[in-house]
Structures are given as C-alpha cells and as structure tokens.
Amino acid sequence: MHARRFWTTTAAAAIVGVALRMAYVLGAVRDRIVLDGDSRTYHWLADGLANGRGYIRASDYVFHGEVIPTAEFPPAYPMLLAVLDLVGIDAPIGQRLVGTLIGGVTIVVIALLGAAVAGRVVGAVAAWIAALYPQLVVFDGSLLSEGFYALLIATTLLAIVRFRADADRRWLLLASVAIGLAVMTRSEAVLLLPFLVVPATRVIGDRRAWARLVLVGAAGTMVLVGAWTTRNAITLGHFLPLTNNSGTLLAGANCDAVYSGPQLGSWRFDCVTAVYPSGLDETDAATDLRSTGIDYALDHAGEVPKVIAVRVARTFGAWDIRTNLFLESLEGRHYDWLWAAWYAWLVVAGLAVAGVVARRHTGRDVWPLLVPVAIVALMSMVSYGNQRFRMMAEPGLVVLAAVGVVALAAHIRRRPPVEDQTQAPVGSS
C-alpha cells in the first residue's frame, strides 16, 4: 500500500469513527443516560480546578460545601477537562463531544502502530477496526478517563515499536512522556516501566548503556510522578507517589458480597461504607481500608483462587456478562452499546489470537502488544473484574486483530477454488 493510500484510508476511518462516536453521545443524551459514578466525579473535579478551588474531594464540596484536598483520583484527565472548562466547554455533552475527537486521534495512532508492526495494510485495517469497535466508541463518548488512556497507551506502544526498529532515542523519550501521562491517568500504567520499557531497551553485553536507555524511558514518569508526589506532600502532608484509590478498591473487592453470590469477583460500594473509618484524613483512611481488604483476603485465603479466576474472567468478558454490563451501565454508558461492545470483543479477541499465530510464523515478535494484556490480567487478580480495566490492552489487541484479518485474507487468496479442489484428475473414470 502506497503512503498516500494509507493516509487516505486512515483519514476516512478517523472521520467515520468520530461521526460514530458523536452519534453515540447524542443518542445517549436523547435516551437520558445520565452521568454517574466516576464520570460524574471527573466532571466535578475539573469544575473545582477550573474555578480555582484546587484539586478537592468533589462530592464533599458538591453536597456539603467543604473544600478538602484530595489524591483519590489521578489528576491528568480532570486537568484535561478543566482546560476545556476554562475555554468555555463546561457542559458534560460538550466535553464528551471533545472526547470523540480524542478518539479520532487514537484511531490515527493505532493505524500508525499497525503500520509499524506489520506494514501499511495492517495499519489501515487496524484504523477501521478501531473506528467501528464499540468498546472504544463507548469510552471515547463518555466522561471516563479510559478514552484518553487508550490514546496514551497506543502512543506508548507506537513509540516502543519504532524505537526497537530505529534505535532512535526520540521515540523512547516520547514513550516516557506517554507513560508518565498514562500513570497520571490510571496508576497501573506504572507497570509499563518494568514490563515494557526495561526489556524493550535491553542492550546485550552493556549494562550501562541499558541503564541509560531505561532512564530515558522512565524520564517522563519520574518528572510527572515527582511533581504529583511533591504536591501531595505539601497539600496532604503525606508521601504519596500515586493515589489513595487503592484503599476503597481493596476494601470493596474483598468482602462477603463479592466472594460469593451473583457479584462474585466484582466490587461493592457498600462494602467500603460498612468499614470506612471515621475521624481520619483521606490518606490515613485509605491505609486503614487497604489493611481491612488485605486482612479479609488473608482470612479467606481458601476462597481467593476462585475469586481471582472470576475477576480475570469478568475483565475479559467471560463470566456472567449480563451482570457485568448492567453494573457498567450504571456509570453512564449505554446498555445496548455495551452489549454490542461485548459481541465485537469476541470477534476482536479471536482475530487477535489469529494475529499472534500469524506473526509467530513470520518470525517477528509482537510481545510489546501483549504486555498490556498481561498487566490487565495482573491488575484484575489483585483488584476486581471489570471490562473497563481492559482498556490498556485494547489498542494492541486491535492491531493484532488487524494482523489476523490480513493473514486470514492472504490464506484465503492462496487456497485454490473449490471446484479445483474437487475436480477429478484428467483421464480418470
């Protein structure tokens, strides 16, 4: 595929993808799908930043008028929404429509990633899969951080793949910035440093050169996390490199209600409120909640393997999908679109497996695309099951699905026509 045709195809996919995402947003508004859960909190956090109140606990201000500094959520996505607020895009629908444009950029980056991995044809196919994939459509059209997160993950993978091909440190520096922003969007992205950057920069026989490259790849994360840690030390009075979210996460994922019954392997808010300590600041409360969740898991160690298996199955859409989708719809995502996303996921996952097999036969590795899949599985094991957590893996899986499509198409073209396969040899009776 010539470069001009690749860019024309990719641009067409991006335009269609943005239009589809806008249609989703307008349809959700028409059907009165309201913001709730984290999407509503992100909107409130951005409002606090834009109006000079600082990064404060959103619900405490909205319901009680209290200005309490927070580190419960990573700051990157609320800061992005705050910028939109400052330029006049302060309504949820306007911010969601901007999210559809971010989705268009993600489509282009995924196309470039596909081209870097396996050529322009794969890149063009990946662009169209990303444009039409309901899982990406739904998050790009929401006020959840996962749409922005997908762009950062796709950029990280593109930069790492190009660095491995070109050995140009500018690509590695881009990866470091993207990872840093990703960590400030969802904390588990910090695992990209040991599992992706470290092996991708390996220099055989020269440990010093390897260490220097690792430092370049980690520079963006060190700067951004360092700035966030400094802010937390000054504002909250605690050394806190990431967030306080792990407290409620572990307390809500380790209790009777999610160790058995219909919500096995999930998360319950009432499990948090039942044990939430009073009289403590946010950080000390988070420490107490973490201990409560861990103690519960240790006290029920015999049940943990079953719970872990179900958590991973939920995240990868393989367990009680009806309950999964209902719970996910409570955060402001359209229930019917979530079903479409699940059916599409089955197709994408199958094609991605075919893509892995195809690349294995060509002798070219695709392990950087699979690292996020492993991180998603690991995070599900220690937290709970939710298809939202799979967003880190989606860009790489879309590219692998495109590899699978192209490989299957090539295989079909190489097969002789059916009539040739069944035709009797000339001269036979």
Characterize the structure shown:
There is one protein chain. The protein is mostly helical and 429 residues long. It has one domain. The chain is built from 21 helices and no strands. Helix 9 runs parallel beside helix 11 (207-235) and helix 16 packs across helix 19. The model is unreliable at 418-429 (pLDDT under 50).
Given helix and strand content, the structural type is mainly alpha
Cα radius of gyration in angstroms: 23 Å
Strand content: under 5%
Distance between the termini: 47 Å
Mean pLDDT: 91
Shape: globular
In DSSP terms (H or I, runs of 4 or more residues), the helix count works out at 21
Number of domains: 1
Order of helices and strands: HHHHHHHHHHHHHHHHHHHHH
Helix share, percent: over 70%
Q: The biggest beta sheet, please? A: none
Can you give me a brief rundown of this structure?
By secondary structure, this protein is mainly alpha-helical.
Give structural attributes.
disordered C terminus; 0% strand; globular; mainly alpha; 429 residues
Topology of this protein?
Blueprint: H1 3-30, H2 37-50, H3 58-64, H4 76-86, H5 92-118, H6 120-132, H7 134-140, H8 146-166, H9 169-183, H10 192-200, H11 207-235, H12 245-253, H13 256-259, H14 269-273, H15 282-299, H16 304-315, H17 321-329, H18 335-362, H19 367-382, H20 394-414, H21 418-422
